[in-house]
Amino acid sequence: MFDSPLAASPYEVLGVDPAVGDDDLRRAYRVRLRQTHPDTGGDAAVFIRVQHAWELIGTAEARARYDRGRDEDARRRWAGPASRAASSGTRPRSRVHGQAGAWRRRRYLQLAADWAGHELSEHQAYDPTFVRTAPWEVRRMLADALAEEATGEMVAELGIGFTVWHDVAVGTDAAHKLDHVVLSPSGLYAVMSEDVGDTVRFRQGEAIGQALGGSTPIADLLGRARAVARTAKVRFGGAILVLPDDDLDQVVVPLGERRGIPTVAVRRSALRGILRSGVPGARTIGGNELFDVRTRLQQTVRLV
Question: What is the pLDDT of residue 297?
Answer without folding.
Answer: 96
